[in-house]
Specification:
Helix 1 crosses helix 6. Helices cover about 60% and strands about 15% of the residues. With about 180 residues, it is of the alpha+beta class. The termini are far apart. It has two domains: about 100 residues, Orthogonal Bundle (Peroxidase, domain 1), CATH 1.10.520; about 70 residues. A four-stranded mixed beta sheet has the order 2-1-3-4. This is ATP synthase subunit delta. It is found in: Cell membrane; Membrane. Belongs to the ATPase delta chain family. Keywords: ATP synthesis, Cell membrane, CF(1), Hydrogen ion transport, Ion transport, Membrane, Transport.
Length: about 180
């Protein structure tokens, strides 16, 4: 159910952002809201507490965020509280952020290698990803996994490109297990 809520509310916020050409502004405001809540865990507890009424929570949001973020973002947070969806805020914001990046043709990739890559290698990987996708820009996170032995594993959304030696060895093992030995 949380994924449905993230999509419904995230799509609504995204449509408003595109319609009013405020995608970047909303992304900045989301960061501001998240930072404020991270620095004040008691606020998060209060806003998600079932024993505190919706009106009180909405007033709290008004006092905390009015003037710090747009009226639209403040109103959006109040709607989340009113509908009992504030605890799903992270998923909603993550969905919205992903939609904006897709809209702006910004790809998000995770590149896993068995060793730390040089700046030159990272540049080549980014160029190759830009050349082989429709993205205009890439946000790449690099990670090391020594069990790969060699090669790379690249994840972009739900797509995976696995050129690691580890996966090739596993494929070979499965092929060899399928061979029946007849005497």
């Amino acid at each position: 159910m949380a994924k449905v809520a993230a999509k419904v509310y995230g799509d609504a916020l995204f449509e408003l952002a595109v319609e009013e050409n405020r995608c970047d502004q909303f992304l900045e405001e989301i960061c501001a809201v998240e930072n404020a809540l991270d620095q004040n865990p008691q606020a998060e507890t209060l806003l998600c507490h079932p024993g505190i009424g919706s009106e009180e929570k909405q007033d709290f949001i008004e006092k905390c965020f009015k003037g710090n973020v747009s009226d639209d973002m403040t109103g959006f947070l109040q709607i989340l509280v009113k509908k009992g969806r504030f605890s799903e805020r992270n998923a909603i914001f993550a969905y919205f952020t992903a939609k904006v990046k897709e809209y702006k043709k910004i790809g998000v990739a995770l590149v896993t290698s068995p060793f730390e890559l040089t700046a030159e290698q990272k540049t080549k990987i980014e160029k190759r990803l830009l050349d082989t996708t429709d993205y205009k820009k890439m946000e790449i996170t690099y990670r090391e996994d020594k069990t790969l032995i060699g090669g790379l594993v690249i994840r972009i959304g739900d797509r995976v490109i696995d050129t690691s030696i580890k996966s090739r060895l596993e494929e070979l093992r499965l092929q060899l297990m399928g061979i029946s030995l007849e005497a």
